[in-house]
Amino acid sequence: MPHDGAWSPTVDRVAPSPRSRRTLALLAVVVVLAGVAGAVVWTRADDGPPPVRTRDVRIDVADGPGRDQPVQLDATLHLPQRTPAPAVLVAHGFGGDKDAVAADARELAERGFVALAYSARGFGRSTGQIALNSPDYEVADAQQLLDWLSRQPEVTTDAPGDPRVGVTGGSYGGALALLLAGVDPRVDAIAPVITYNDLGQALLPNAGTTGKITPRTPAAGAFSADGVFKRNWAGLFFAAGLGPGGGATPKGQAPEPGAAPTPSPTQGGQLDQGSRPDRGEAPRTGQPVPQQGPATCGRFRPEVCQAYVEVTTTGRASAATVELLRRSSPASVTERIKAPTLLVQGEQDTLFGLDQSDATARQIAAGGGTVKTVWYSGGHDGGNPGPSVRGQIADWFAFHLKHTGPDPGTGFEYAVQGAFRSGGPTVRVAVADRYPGLDGPDDQGVERRPVALRGPAQVVLNPPGGNPASLSSLPGLGSRLSGAGSGAAALAGGLAADVPGQTAVFTSEPVDAQVLVTGSSRVRLRVSSVPGQPATGEAVLFVKLYDVGPDGRRTLPGNAVAPVRVGGLPADGTPVEVSVTLPGVVRPVEAGHRLQLAVTTTDQGYAGPTAPAVHRIELAGDGQLSVPTVPGRRAATGGTPALPLLGVGIVLAVVALVALGVAVRRRHLDDVHEELADVPLVIRDLSKSYRGGLKAVDGLSFRVERGQVLGLLGPNGAGKTTTLRMLMGLVRPSTGEIRVFGHRVLPGVPVLSRIGAFVERTGFLPHLSGLDNLRLHWAATGRPAEQAHAEEALEIAGLGKAVHRRVGTYSQGMRQRLAIAQAMLGLPDLLVLDEPTNGLDPPQIHHMREVLRRYAATGRTVVVSSHLLAEVEQTCTHVVVMHHGRLVAVGEVGEIVDGGEVAFRVDDVELAADALRGLPGVGAVTPDGQVVHADLGVLPRSAAVAALVAAGVAVDQVGPRRRLEDAFLQLVGEEAVE
Amino acid sequence: MSEGHTGHVVPELPEPGGAGPNPDGSAEGYRARHTLPLRVELVRQLRRRRTQVTLGLLAALPLLLLLAFELGSDERNRRSGGLVDLATASGANFVSFALFASASFLFVVVVALFFGDTVASEASWSSLKYLLAIPVPRHRLLRQKAVVSGVLSLLALVLLPLVSLGAGVLWYGTGELVTPTGEALPFGVAVLRLAVAVVYLAVHLSWVAGLALLLSVSTDAPLGAVGGAVLASILSQILDSITALGDLRVYLPTHYSFAWSDVLTSEVEWTDMARGAFSAVAYSAVFLLLAGRRFATKDITS
């Protein structure tokens, strides 16, 4: 809305510096907030984890069957702030050394444990050769580390020579934890991570059996003999033992609940030791000269090397190799483990799958031990445990070694990774009270849900040389790719490819509701040779379970494949029925998705047969896939909603009380002087000071009676508009009071409803028409429509058809007239108009004067402000002159304008004065320059002029003496000078 | 000024008459509790282009999303199992996606707009003083305006999920709601849960409403009030993302802004939503009381 400063008092405009002050205040708030944030960051930075001291030690042990082979182990003792404390032995993964687990050890020390990280024999700076966790070598070494720990003053002991100790480690180190707990009763708790139960089954798995699979646990594997060699992984594993620089442990961290998948730095394609990415150590290269034996055997003991060479060259394991692997496997001792065991296994692990920890859990439970199983979203293909799982491990030790913290129980937790990757958290943890199937023969075991598969019998062939081969995974690929973001992880899931002609496919109908596969599904297949086609008497098959989306996209959960070797296949085509345990996975199969079983003859990760063969594959029995599900609840986050809800109630109650209090106080606001009930307006000692000391109105007092048209006259900045605002209850007086019909004016008092006002600017909703503005304004008063007298008001506005146009299109004068019409709605007893004729053309001004006169003539009262004397003179009956907020003059217009005094402009002032003094009834006569002022009383001017002429005075001009104008001009003149 | 006739006919004005003034000194027919009825304020706001465009945009947004998903399904850019697949897995998923997309900014802007603009725009048009001179008591004016802003905000908050639900069901069916963390809820349950989520969002956004109203009565510039509230929300979100602040972040008003996603699990976890509700109600109560106090004592100079 354009604003013409010329006719608006400037005093009112000086005040709103509050806006800039508010900007300042906002700025101040921002600065304070930033300061607080900075301070908090600063103080928190000091408030770091407790300090950890380390001590590098070299520990001499003697091992071998006769405990006579000296070996020196390189170790670092991580000491907590307070000792003595229980100890935790931290063993590293294959290809790593004590530095690879330094971060884990430090974390445990921060949690108050004495953590001993050491390099196993054959790794790092420790001497000796790798014996694959042999009871005579690595396990014997670890037992002597327990002896050593028991002698350290920082370690709590249960008895002389018996330290309070837990053992943890990933992969190779996890197996050591199990083996040590199995042979040494001094171990008080263990937490093996992503490790094997049976190394033979891990490297030469056979997931098919012609017998019955009895375990009722979720991820029980068939664990049949004579498996298929897991060539790629075994090669990586072996290479890690050839010398420094190799590695078979995962990189990066697995995603956890609440965390968005973040890219973690990876070091190119280098398959080096999977320490935490933050360590960022440079890959070591080069090949040390072996201490003994052939270079191809690296740091392996000869019997291990020989077994590896045998398996890789033949693809089969001899009885001796099987025995060697069995002795190195926790399976040989698990039934004797009594130390509470936290089994942490990865869901993305094609090396040591969920079936491995499943077997361990079963064996420990069968032996009467305490075991809890946690499946997390990583593994050898998916990354190391994240902070939450590591915290769980520390909690496990805290409870079982220090008896602090809550009981972690013996339940089962599994991570569910959503089938979609949305950039937000995609992992949740489900909690079950127990791991199903551990509680003996009465245990009903895991819930299994049948899903019908369909597909005809299909003939598949094994190509000569086993090439080309299907692809399911690349060892460790998942964890490397997941570091590059979720896109790569999705790529890993969609990596699997089957070669046509080698694959039999059986597909389910779309599932009608989500199926959360939790463990290993089972299926029965009928395999037979095809008479007349190449046959070898056995079939090697790779069985996979795909999740197929509605658009046909296939995902292989966990990239996992179940290798099956079916022996004794008759050449005449007689089928052999085999039960297959599929890889253990956790996978939500969404509604509308299908499950698809693919049976192929080849897989690039395995050493399949090279002889050509043709097999016929069909579903056996009812053709149903048995899918395990474990109902889990959400992991409890703690806290109760009751307290905050109580808080909500309290806040609402307080607000209600405050509102009530304000309402009650407002009831007692009415302040009325009955004797003034008929006086439209009384102003007494009114002052208004704005912040900054500016006095806009200063001690103003006047009174307006019914039927008057009062002019409030004063130059710009005289305080007229401020006075009118106070009259409308918009601005609070600093002192003094305004009474309208006896009622004191305060913001929102009911008597204001008898005032109609137009002050300063018009106030219309620009998007509405003039008519709608008036209608809505009247509607907002809540008064009956018939009291509005809208027709009269519109007639006065004289806008014609323009009332139907948007106000935004109006000219200044049109708005002005509409505003006056709005003020007149309801024909208020007191009409207050601020500079009403501004912006009107002369005929309209004339019209407006007539309107105001008529308005007052009905017994109502009008107050008009103006800075134009002529305007007041022609419109008003009474006038109040203001300047600088003070009252200058007050009275009837006629009385003030021409109170009987006449001014004569003459040639001879002295002569004229004498002549006038001589006239009868003439009062005071004052010469003033070329003008003589005289109070003529009742004497007509013509008589006075005649007398002057008779006295020989030349009369130039005769007129009323304009005292008001004098005063006013003087004021305006001052204003102009300022 | 050339518009309209300027005929010099002065209408006959009736003498004052009728029942005369009420005992409280007010004009005949005036009752403070009848001033500025909600219906009138609603009409005043609904006839504003701003309101119409905002509500229209919120209704159109789901359709735009739908179009984007349908037209933008270029195979090369469409990653298997990505965001688009999640959003289009079912009608309920589409609603949940629309809510996720709008919750932290769009809804904040809408609520800030309705509440921040309501008094400040009247001040900027100078119409505020004429409302107060009716007189609409100040507390009543603020209350009526807050109620109408609340109604409009709720309308906006409900409109978007409702249109999303309609469009989503038509295009993507009434399948299970699937979450990023791999949980599935039957359609009926999911719709109910989404309704709870909208209710929570409404409660949560009350802090924005309170702040915007406080700013609205403190300034004559509508943009300042709306922008100030949005700015505060963004600032709070930024601070909330600084994990070094630790537990202090729970005092940030936006800390629980996504607590409603807790309803999208098989077992609803109410703790965070209850905390979020308390945080929002406490903030908005303080802001609203401050706004009421400020407005009641303020000199109207616009």
TrEMBL record, chain A:
Signal peptide: none annotated. PROSITE patterns: ABC_TRANSPORTER_1, ABC_TRANSPORTER_2. SUPFAM superfamilies: alpha/beta-Hydrolases (SSF53474), Galactose-binding domain-like (SSF49785), P-loop containing nucleoside triphosphate hydrolases (SSF52540). The keyword ATP-binding applies. GO terms for molecular function: ATP binding. The chain crosses the membrane at residues 23-42, 642-664. Keywords: ATP-binding, Hydrolase, Membrane, Nucleotide-binding, Transmembrane, Transmembrane helix, Transport. InterPro entries: AAA+_ATPase, AB_hydrolase_fold, ABC_transporter-like_ATP-bd, ABC_transporter-like_CS, Galactose-bd-like_sf, P-loop_NTPase, Xaa-Pro-like_dom, Xaa-Pro_dipept_C. The keyword Transport applies. Residues 246-298 are annotated as: Disordered. Residues 681-909 form the ABC transporter domain. It comes from the Bacteria. Belongs to the ABC transporter superfamily. This is ABC-2 type transport system ATP-binding protein. The lineage of its organism: Bacteria, Bacillati, Actinomycetota, Actinomycetes, Pseudonocardiales.
UniProtKB/TrEMBL annotation, chain B:
Residues 1-30 are annotated as: Disordered. It comes from the Bacteria. Signal peptide: none annotated. Keywords: Membrane, Transmembrane, Transmembrane helix. Pfam families: ABC2_membrane_4. The chain crosses the membrane at residues 53-72, 92-115, 147-172, 192-214, 221-239, 273-292. PANTHER family: INTEGRAL MEMBRANE PROTEIN-RELATED, MEMBRANE PROTEIN. This is ABC-2 type transport system permease protein. It comes from Streptoalloteichus tenebrarius (strain ATCC 17920 / DSM 40477 / JCM 4838 / CBS 697.72 / NBRC 16177 / NCIMB 11028 / NRRL B-12390 / A12253. 1 / ISP 5477).
